[in-house]
Amino acid sequence: DLDRSTFNDHNNTGTVTFTFSEVPSGFDLADVSVTGGGLSNLQPVVGNPLQYTATFTADDNSTTAVAISVAADKFTDPVGNDNLASNTDTATVDTQNPTVVVEIADASLSDGDNSSNVTFTFSEAPVGFTAADISATHGTVSNLAATADPLVFTATFTAADGFTGNGSVSVTAGSYTDVAGNLGSTGADTVAIDTQNPTVVVEIADASLSDGHNSSNVTFTFSEAVSAATVATLAGGAGITVAGGTLSALSWAADHTSATATFTATDG
Fold first, then answer.
1. Is 232 left (phi over 0), alpha (psi -120 to 50) or beta?
2. What is the pLDDT along the chain (268 residues), one digit of tens a residue?
3. What CA–CA distance (Å, rounded) separates 120 from 62?
4. Dist. CA 113–CA 28, nearest whole Å
5. Cβ neighbours of 233 (radius 10 Å)
6. Is 69 exposed, middle or buried, given 0-12, 13-18 or 19+ CB atoms closer than 10 A?
7. Is 124 buried (19+), middle (13-18) or exposed (0-12) by CB count in 10 A?
């Protein structure tokens, strides 16, 4: 006879009582068939030679039901008669910890697209899952919402401004449970972020120009490689302002992190 009908992570042990019609001889744990867990600490009940107790411990991360029984011919009474088969006591087990998969929809985020949908997919319907259970690095999570599917929640991740690197969204382990009360495990996903605005340093090599020396090399040094579209735009002169002279076409480094040109001062 089990003293519990259900087992989970928080309550994974119980007491089993074996009650005999006669005082048993040679009865031990090897005589007991058990599924869903294990037995230990078999001992007679003090003052009652017809009863023994043992401790049942449910298997971890399992949903296998408990069944405890004693087969026939496992022990005898004091005069040597073999026992009959016992009845079987049962109970349910759910010690399986729920899991969550976090998925950030976008592969990368930038100034032009700095937010993405995030999906949280649970192995079992979560209990107590809230926005406070979510952690984010280099960004924020908002608009947590349940969907028609009880296993799926959604939210929005917005990347921090002025950052280059990986952002992440994660669920804290143990912050939610399944309906059986088992603590949930963690889940996380990352996304590449580049919301750092590039800069450029313009340097005219010569400190002064004159009739005898009216031109100078100019260097444009960028903090990041610029796009092919930017190279084409600057090649056409758009985006560059020149006063007091003219600028030749830009000559680009192969990695597009710098360019050079010649500035020629206006005569007179």
1. alpha
2. 999 999 999 899 999 999 999 999 999 999 999 999 999 999 999 999 999 999 999 999 999 999 999 999 999 999 999 999 999 999 999 999 999 999 999 999 999 999 999 999 999 999 999 999 999 999 999 999 999 999 999 999 999 999 999 999 999 999 999 999 999 999 999 999 999 999 999 999 999 999 999 999 999 999 999 999 889 888 877 889 999 999 999 999 999 999 999 999 999 9
3. 23
4. 69
5. 14
6. middle
7. buried
